[in-house]
Amino acid sequence: MNTDHQASIHNMNEDIIVIKNLNKWYGNFHVLRDINLTVKKGERIVICGPSGSGKSTTIRCINRLEEFQRGSLTVNGVEMIDDVKNIEAIRKEVGMVFQHFNLFPHLTILENLTLGPIWVQKKPKEEAKAIAMKYLERVKIPDQANKFPGQLSGGQQQRVAIARSLCMSPEIMLFDEPTSALDPEMIKEVLDVMVELADEGMTMLCVTHEMGFAKTVADRVIFMDGGEIVEQNTPDTFFDHPETDRLQLFLSQILQH
Amino acid sequence: MPIKEFKPLPAQPAPVSTTGPIAWLKNNLFSSPFNIVATLLILSGLFLILPGLIDWLFISANWTGTTQDACVDDGACWVFIRAWSQQIFYGSYPSGELWRVNLCLFLLAVVIYLSFILPINLRNKVAIPAFLALPFVCLLFLDGRYLGLEYVNTDYWGGFSLNILLAAASIIIAFPFGFLWALGRRSNLPFAQSVSVICIEFFRGTPVLALFFMGSVMLPLFFPEGVTVDKLLRVWIILILFMSAYMAEVFRSGFQAIPNGQYEAADSIGLGYWQKTFFIIFPQVIKVSMPNILATFIMVFKNTVFLLVIAVPEILQVILGALTNSKWLGGHATEGFLFVALVFWACCYSMSMLSTSIEKKLDTSHKH
Amino acid sequence: MFYQKTIEQIKTDTRPSSAGAKAFYNNPKYRGWIYQSLLLIFLIAFFYSIISNTLSNMAAQGIKSGFGFMTTSAGFDVLMSLIPFETTDSYTKVFIIGILNTILVSIIGVICSTMLGFIFGIAYFSRNWLIKKISIIYVETFRNIPVILQVLFWYTAVLTTLPSTRDSLSIGEAFFLNIRGLYIPRLIDEPKSFVVYIAIVIAIVAIFFLRRWARKRQDLTGEQFPLIWSSLGILLGLPLLALFIAGVPFHFEYPELKGFNFQGGINVIPELMALAIAMSIYTGAFIAEAVRAGIQSVPHGQTEAARSIGLKERKIMSLIIVPQAMRVITPMLNSEYQSLVKNTTIATAIGYPELFTVFAGSALNQVGQAIEMMFMSLAIYFALNMMISFIMNQFNKRVAITTR
Amino acid sequence: MKKLSSIIAGGLAIGLTISAQAGTLEDVKKRGTLSCGVSTGLAGFSQKDEKGVWSGLDVDVCRSVAAAVLGDASKVQYKPLTAKERFTALQSGEIDILSRNTTWTHTRDTSLGLNFAGVIYYDGTGFMVSKKLGVKSATELDGANACIQAGTSTELAIADYFRENKMNYKAVTFDTSDQTRTGFESGRCDFLVSDQSQLYALRIGLKDPSAAVVLPEVISKEPLGPVVRQNDDVWFNIVKWVVNASIEGEFQNVTSANAKDLRKNGNPGQKRLLGSEGDLGEKLGLSADWAYQAITQVGNYSESFERNVGQDSPLKISRGLNAQWNKGGILYSPAMR
Fold first, then answer.
1. May I ask which residue range the UniProt record assigns to the signal sequence (chain B) (predicted)?
2. For the complex shown, is ipTM > 0.90?
3. What residues in D contact B145, CB-CB < 8 Å?
4. Which pTM value belongs to this model?
5. pLDDT tens readout for residues B5-23
6. In the CATH scheme, what architecture does the domain D125-220 have?
7. In CATH terms, is domain C91-153+273-399 a member of 1.10.3720.10?
C-alpha cells in the first residue's frame, strides 16, 4: 500500500490539472480573472485569500459545480466541455469536501458512504459496504456506521464527508474550507485526517485559513485576491518572504489573531 | 527581495455570448433540445389563444352605456359590470349612507396598518382591543339604529364589501376562540381537551357549504319559538366557529415553534398561567403564526363566496341575481364570473404576497 | 407528596405564585376541575336547550323525525350512478349513489391534482424561463380564485367547446366526444375472460418478485436492472398473451346514437369532467406550492454533494431530493386531499350528483328532514377524511422513519 | 375594557329579534315595515335592479300588503331566500309573508304549519325544446335529456310524467334557473322543464329566442301564491283579501290612475272596495282605505301582471289561465261585500 503512494509521489511530474486563462462572470461581475494553474499528481496545494477572492469558485470549477465562460480546464487528461458524459467522467476523478459537510440526513452513515459506489460505480452491496467500512476506519469512526448524520458531532460529520469522497477512490480531493464551520477541538480531528491523507500521496486542493496546515503539509500555497492568483510559492517563501504588498497585508492581518 | 506592488487585473466585460439578450434567450429558453421544443410549444399556444382573448376582453368589448342595449359589439359586455357596480360592491346599501361602509373598510385598513407599525408594547395595549372592538363598532355603524343614524337592515348589506367585512369580522372574533381551543387541546385537563378536540375536528372536517347550509336551515330550529336570529348573524357565528377551528390548529403549530425557554422564563418571574399565556406566549405565537393566519384568512375570504348557496347577497350572488333580471337576460355570466374572479384574485394575491414577505422577515434561520 | 403527584400538571397548567397558594381555588388541581365542571355545566345546558327547542320547533312545524324516509321511493331521477337506478328506488339507494359519486370524483381529483401539482411544482425549478413563469402563474392564478368560480368556468368552457350530439368528435365508431360527455365502449365479459384477469394478477405478482430479484441482484453484483420498462412489459405483455391464447374472450358494447342520445358504452358526463378538471387544477395549485416548498427545503448543498460523488441528475432527484422533500410535502398533501374531498360539495353548482347535491340537496328538498340528512352526509365526509388521514399518516411514517 | 364589552353587547343585540307572540299585524305595525321572503332572482316575479329596487309579480303582493297595512308600499323589507330555506324562514318568524313562487300543495298546506293565502299565478310545468329537433309534442321526448332546476317540485313532476307515459329521460339538474338555460342553450340537454312562467323568461334569455319553442303540454298544476303562518287568522285574512282586492280591482276596472276619482264617483262596488262605503277595512283590522292604498300604489292585478311579466315587460307572457273568469281565465275573486 505504502509503496503505491511512494510511487505516486515520485511521479509528480505528471500534470493532473491544467487550468489555462480561466475566466468566469456572474452576470456582469468578473469573478475569476485569467486563472492559470497547473497541478501535478500528488501535489498538495493550499489556496487562501480574503473572502470573495474567488478561491471556492476556482476549485468548484474543477468538478463543474460552477460553469466558466472562457479559458480551458483539463482534469487527468479530460478536457472540460459542456457535455454531460464529460462532466460525469471528470466528477468520478474528483472528490469534494464541503464547508457544511452536506451529508444526506435521511441516510445512515453507511448508506451515505455506499451511495456512490452502488449507484455510480455499480458495485455489489457487500463490496460497497466493505469499502465504506475501510474508509470509516481510516477516519476512525467505524462504530458510528449505523447512525444518522444528525446524531454525530460536526467533526465526525466532516470526517464522514471525507470518507464518503474517498469511497469513490478519486484521483484528486478538493476541500472547500473544511474546518471553518467547526469548533476548535474538532478542527484538529479533521485536520489530522487530512494530514494523513496528504501523507498517503493524494492530490489535494484545499481552500483553508489553517495556516499551520498550509505550512506543514502544502507543497505550494496560492494567494488569491479579486478573482486572480496574486502569488504562489512554497510555504516557506510564501510566509516568510511575500512578494507583494497585498499578501503582506493579508498575512499581517491573519497572523495577528 | 523587493516587495512588488499588487495591481489588480482590470475587470473585463463578460463575453457577449454569455450576457445580453441573445445569451439570455439561449440560456433561458433554448438551452437544450427539450427546452427548445417546450418553448416553441408554449409560444405557439400563446399565439393561438392570446389574440382572440385580448380582442374579446378589450378591443371589441363594450365599455360605455347603461343598459344591455349598449352591448352591440361581439366582445365582452363590460357595461353589465358598470351598471351593476354599486350593487356588486355595496349591495343594496342606501346610496346616501355608503360612507358608513367605506368608514368600516377604512377603519379596518387603519387597524391593520397600526398593528404593523406600532411598537410591540403598544401593540398589545392598543391594537388588540382595537381589533376586537372593530367588528362591533362596524356593526353599530352599519346598522345605525343605536347611533342615531338611519336604520339599515342587514338585508341591505351586500356586495364585495360584505365579503371583506364578514371575513375580517370572523377572523377577528375567531382569534380568542381559536386560541382558547388551542389551549384546550394542549391542556392536561382531560375533559377540556376532548371538548376542544371535538370542536376543532368537527369544524375542520365539515365542508363549509354544509356549515352554511346548517346555519341557514338548522340553526333557526335551535332557538326558542318566537326568537329569530338575523341571518347574517347566524352566518357570522358559523364563520367564527369554522375559522376558530382552523385558527386553533394554526396556533397549535405556533405553540410548538416557541422554545421551551420562554415558558421557563415566564415561570421564573412568577407569572400565573393566564398572565404567562397572554403576556409572554400569546404575542409570540401570533408573530410566528402570522403567515399561516393570513393563509387561513385567504381561505375563508374565498369561502365567503359559498354564501350564495344560502342567498346571502355577497358579490357572486349579486351577479347571479343580476343575470335573472328581465332587463339583463342576455347571458353575461362570463363577464360577471370573470370580474368576480379578478377582484378575488387581486385581493388574495396581494395578501399572499404580504404573507410571503412576512415569512421572509421571520425566517432568520440560515440555510445552506 | 401531593406536589410530586401533580408536578406534571403544574408545569404545563398553572404555576401558583407563592402568595395565595394556600387557598384551595388557587390549587392548580382543583382549579382545573372547577374549569372543567363549569364547562360541563355549560355544555349540558347548551345542548339541553338546543335539543328541547329543536324538538318543540319540529313539532310545531310538522317536521317528521327518524329514518323512515330511507325506505321510501325517491321519485326523481339521478343524472349519473355507478349502480343501476330507477326513479322508484329508495332514498337509501340515492344515498349510496351520492357516496359513490363523491368517492369517484375524489379519487380522480386526488390522482390528477397530485400529478399536476408535482409537474408544476418541479417545473418551478426548470431552467426554461417560460416553464418557470408558467408554473408561477399557474399557482398564483388558480389558488387565489374561489373554487366555485373555477367550477362554473370550466363547466361553461366544457359546454361551449364541445360539439352537439350529432356532430360528435369520434375515433372510429367506438369513442365519441360531445356535449353529453365522453362515450367509450364497455367491455363485456365472456366465459373465458377469467384467463385474462388471472394473467393480470400473475403479472402484478411477477412484477413484485422481479423487483425483489432485481434488488438482490444489484446488491450482489452491483448491476442495475431496467425495472420500469421490464415491469411495463410484463404488465402489458402477459395479459395480451392470455388474451390471444383464450381467443379474445371479450366483446365491446359500442355507444350508438339512438334518438336523442348515445346508448350503450360508458358515458363520462361533462359535469364530472368539469368538476374533476376544476378540482384537479385548484388543488393541484396548492400541491404544486407544497412540492415547491418541499424541494426548496432541501438545501442546495445536498445537490452539490450528490453531484460531487458523480450521481446523475435523475438519481439525485430520486435518491436525495425527493426523499427529503417528501417529509415536508406529505403532511401538506394530507390536508389538501381532505379539502379536496370537502370541496367536491360545490358540485351542487353544476349539478354533478355527488352526495351533497343529490342527498343533502334534491332528496332533502323532497323529504325535508334536514337534521338527519345533514348528519348522515357529514358522517360520510368525516369517514372519507379519516380514511385519507389514515392512509397519509401511514405513508408519512414510512417517510419519517427514513429521514430522522 | 368596560367600553369594549358594552360595544360588544350592543353589537350582539342588533341581530337578535324577539317577536312578541301577539300577532303578525301588531308586529308589522310596531316595526313599521313588512318582512317579505322573496326569491333570490326570478325574472318577472322577484328581481332586483341596479339600484337595488325590487320588482315583480311576487314582490307586488308584498308591496300591496304593505300599502294596505302601513299605507306605504315601499315599507317592505325583502329577504331573498333559497328554495331550501323558505319555509324555515316563515316558520321561525323571520318573515311575515312568503311570496316566492311557491306552489300550493296539499302537503305544504297541511303539514308544515303554513297557510296559503290565495293564488296569484296559475302555473304549470311545461317543456321548451329547440326548434331544430322538430318535436311537436312531449310524448316524442323518449330517451332525451332534461335540464331541470334542482330541488323543485318539477323534479318530481317530470319523473311522474315520464313514468306514466313509459318513457325514459335523463335529468341534468342545475342549481339556478339561469344555469338551466345555459345548459339548454349549449345542448347539454334536449329539452328544458320548468314552470311555464319561467320558460318564457328563460326563452328570452336565449341568444336566439326564436330557435326554441314551448310545447303545448302542461304536465302539472302549479298554483303559485303567498304563504303565511298558521294560527294567525287576522294576518291570514289580510293577505288573502289584499290578493283578492287586486283581482277584484281589475274586475271592477279600478286602476291606479282612476282609483282616486272612482273613490268619490264610482259605483257602489267600486266604492266599497276603495273604502268610501262600507267597513271592509275595519273588519280586517285595517284602515278604511286599505285597498285604495294598495291599488293606487301598486295597481290592480292586470297592471301588476302586464308591468312585470306581460306585454309591458320583456317576457311578454299572455294572460292565458290568469285572465279574469269572464275573459277566458280562471281568476275569480270572492265577493267584496
1. none
2. no
3. 14
4. 0.87
5. 788 888 888 777 777 788 8
6. 3-Layer(aba) Sandwich (3.40)
7. yes
